[in-house]
C-alpha cells in the first residue's frame, strides 16, 4: 500500500479539484495568499492551508485508496449494534461505503471540502467515519509521510501551474480492486503561470 496509495490519492485529488472549478479557485487563492503565487510549499505552511487540507480529506472520503481495510479476525464473539460477529469470523471494513453513508454525511456523493472547515474530523484513526489509513494497531505506518507528501505535492502543483483538461470531459468512473483507481487515467496539461 505504499507509493501506489500515494499516487492514487494524488491523482484522485487532482481529478476532483479539476472537476470542481470552484474548489480549485478557492485552493489557488488560499495558496496565493499564504505561500505566494508560484512558490513551492514548505512543510511548515501546511497548517496554514485549511482549505487544501479539507480538499485532501474530502478526496479521501470519496476515494479511499484502499476501499477495504486489511481483513480482521474476531478473537472472541463480539456484539456490535445488535449483530453478533462470531469468534474466528473474518471481518472486512468497507471504508468506501462508510465515506458515502447518508446517515453520516450530508450530500454524500458531492465533493464539498467545506464540510471539513471548522470540523474536528481527521483521518488519523480516531474518527471512524473517516479512516482512509485504517485505525488501531494495524493503522498505516506510512500516514505521517503520506499526508505530508500529499499536501506538498498537490499544493505545489496547484500553486505552480494552471491546469487544463486534455479532452472535453472528465470521466470520474472508478476501477475497483485491492486499491481503487480511476477507470480512465487523468489527462491534464500544465500551463505555466
Ligand atoms: C495516501 C497514501 C496511503 C494510504 C491511503 C494508505 C492506506 C493504508 C491502509 C488503509 C492500510 C491498512 C490499514 C488497516 O487495515 O487498518 C495501510 C497499511 C500499510 N501501509 Fe499504507 N497508505 C498510504 C501510504 C503508505 C506509505 C507512504 C507507506 C510506507 C512508507 C505505507 C506503508 C504501509 C504498511 C507497511 C501497511 C501495513 C501495516 C500493517 O499491516 O500492520 N503506506 N495503508
UniProtKB/TrEMBL annotation:
Entries under Pfam families matching the protein: p450
Signal peptide: none
GO molecular function, one term: oxidoreductase activity, acting on paired donors, with incorporation or reduction of molecular oxygen
InterPro entries listed in its UniProt record: Cyt_P450 (IPR001128), Cyt_P450_CS (IPR017972), Cyt_P450_E_grp-I (IPR002401), Cyt_P450_sf (IPR036396)
UniProt keywords, alphabetically: Heme, Iron, Metal-binding, Monooxygenase, Oxidoreductase
Key word Oxidoreductase present: yes
Record PROSITE patterns: CYTOCHROME_P450 (PS00086)
Protein residues bound to heme: 140
Cofactor(s) recorded in Swiss-Prot or TrEMBL: heme
Family membership noted in the UniProt record: Belongs to the cytochrome P450 family.
Record-given protein name: Cytochrome P450
Amino acid at each position: 500500500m505504499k507509493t501506489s496509495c500515494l499516487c492514487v490519492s494524488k491523482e484522485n485529488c487532482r481529478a476532483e479539484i479539476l472537476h470542481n472549478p470552484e474548489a480549485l479557485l478557492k485552493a489557488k487563492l488560499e495558496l496565493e495568499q499564504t505561500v505566494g503565487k508560484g512558490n513551492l510549499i514548505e512543510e511548515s505552511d501546511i497548517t496554514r492551508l485549511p482549505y487544501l487540507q479539507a480538499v485532501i480529506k474530502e478526496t479521501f472520503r470519496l476515494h479511499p485508496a484502499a476501499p477495504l481495510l486489511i481483513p480482521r479476525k474476531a478473537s472472541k464473539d463480539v456484539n456490535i449494534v445488535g449483530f453478533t460477529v462470531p469468534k474466528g469470523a473474518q471481518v472486512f471494513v468497507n471504508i468506501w461505503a462508510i465515506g458515502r453513508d447518508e446517515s453520516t454525511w450530508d450530500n454524500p456523493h458531492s465533493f464539498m471540502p467545506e464540510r471539513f472547515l471548522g470540523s474536528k474530523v481527521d483521518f488519523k484513526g480516531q474518527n471512524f467515519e473517516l479512516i482512509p489509513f485504517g485505525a488501531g494497531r494495524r493503522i498505516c505506518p506510512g500516514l505521517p509521510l503520506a499526508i505530508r507528501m500529499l499536501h506538498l505535492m498537490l499544493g505545489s502543483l496547484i500553486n505552480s501551474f494552471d491546469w487544463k483538461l486534455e479532452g472535453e470531459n472528465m470521466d470520474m468512473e472508478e476501477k475497483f480492486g485491492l486499491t481503487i483507481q480511476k477507470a480512465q487515467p487523468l489527462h491534464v496539461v500544465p500551463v505555466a503561470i
